[in-house]
Automatic annotation (TrEMBL):
SUPFAM superfamilies: Trypsin-like serine proteases (SSF50494)
Signal peptide bounds: 1-21
Keyword annotations: Disulfide bond, Hydrolase, Protease, Serine protease, Signal
Residue span, Peptidase S1 domain: 91-330
Origin superkingdom: Eukaryota
InterPro entries reported in the protein's UniProt record: CLIP_Serine_Protease, Peptidase_S1_PA, Peptidase_S1_PA_chymotrypsin, Peptidase_S1A, Trypsin_dom, TRYPSIN_HIS, TRYPSIN_SER
Protein name in the entry: Serine protease snake-like
Family annotation (PANTHER family): CLIP DOMAIN-CONTAINING SERINE PROTEASE-RELATED (PTHR24260:SF135), PTHR24260
Length: 330
């Protein structure tokens, strides 16, 4: 009788203990009755970078969210993306780039005070359409002067084959104020169209990949000399709600990290954007449903707490400025 009771107790015990093989539901619903998949929060870039997310459940303290990993179905054609490859139906501790690997990359030049006819390249930018460059608003005027020329093509700054093009107009975002770093975006109109393909703009808020690339001619170490050759670094997007912790009390960001900004950091090599990289592009390489790899502009280098010092760098989220950009260009 005692043996039977013990057996019954053991059966009841094992029935009450959750099995490690318990299968949780994977199918979930997003807004607009779109089907998603329940996966770990850190494996869902759309949830990491998006404004909000829908949770599914928690397993051993780890949050699972409803994720839509392929966002191409949400991409809608815009005038700004019409001719830039849209499907139809430097850098601290940086890596060397191939010749014209980033042909849409631009360097902003100011008239040199030492030698007439030469330029000092102090900021970056990116060609987005015809004769328009997008850059940071704080690069639109340095020491009271706008940039004189732009060098497009992503080549060495000393490459004699690449000729600078004159800047004819500088348009800073109307809400930008120099005392803080919100709306840090500007457009430059060039005298003529460069011989280079423009970079597409990612028009959604969220990203379909957390792995992105920053490109620039900036300093290769803090307070060092700038790079004559274009450099790149691979970064990961940091959720705004986490990034804001690194900038509490920063007078340049009195309202914290805004929806119009995004943060990124290199967790492996501790590479980073640095002085002189401002205005340069943050690039997402995304594979279309047709299998084509297309580069997209997702951010403009804006601000950081030092080069490779541990803080994520802050970038202007270009997708939030599509309407403004189109109102200027068209």
């Amino acid at each position: 009788m005692v043996m039977i009771k013990m057996y019954l107790l053991l059966v009841l015990y094992f029935q009450c203990v959750p099995s490690s093989a318990t299968k949780f539901p994977t199918k979930c619903w997003l807004s607009r009755r779109t089907v998603g998949t329940c996966i770990k929060l850190l494996d869902c870039p759309a949830a990491i970078t998006g404004k909000s997310f829908r949770s599914c459940y928690t397993v051993r303290g780890e949050l699972y969210v409803c994720c839509k990993k392929i966002l191409w179905g949400d991409m809608r054609p815009r005038r700004i993306t019409g001719d830039c490859g849209m499907p139809r139906y430097e850098i601290y501790n940086g890596l060397q780039t191939e010749y014209r690997e980033f042909p849409y990359m631009a360097a902003l030049g100011w008239d040199s005070t030492f030698k007439a006819g030469t330029y000092d390249y102090k900021c970056g930018g990116v060609l987005i359409m015809n004769s328009y460059i997008v850059t940071a608003a704080h690069c639109a005027v340095l020491n009271g002067l706008p940039p004189s020329v732009v060098l497009v093509g992503g080549t060495n700054l000393n490459d004699s084959r690449n000729k600078p093009i004159k800047v004819t107009q500088v348009i800073r975002h109307p809400l930008y104020k120099s005392r803080n770093l919100y709306h840090d975006i500007a457009l430059l109109k060039l005298e003529k169209c460069p011989v280079a393909n423009p970079l597409c703009i990612w028009t959604l808020y969220a990203l379909d990949s957390v792995n992105i690339t920053a490109v620039g001619y900036g300093h290769t170490f803090f307070a060092g000399a700038h790079s004559e050759r274009l450099l790149k670094t691979h970064l990961s997007v940091i959720p705004n709600r986490i990034c804001v912790r690194h900038y509490r009390g920063d007078t340049s960001l009195p309202k914290g990290i805004a929806d119009t900004q995004l943060c990124a950091k290199d967790f492996v090599r501790q590479s980073d954007t640095c002085q002189g990289d401002s205005g340069g592009p943050l690039i997402l390489r995304s594979t279309s449903p047709q299998g084509d790899e297309i580069d997209f502009l997702v951010g403009i280098t804006s601000y950081g707490g030092g080069c490779g010092f541990g803080k994520p760098a802050v970038y202007t989220r270009v997708s939030q400025y599509i309407d403004w950009i189109e109102s200027i260009i068209f």
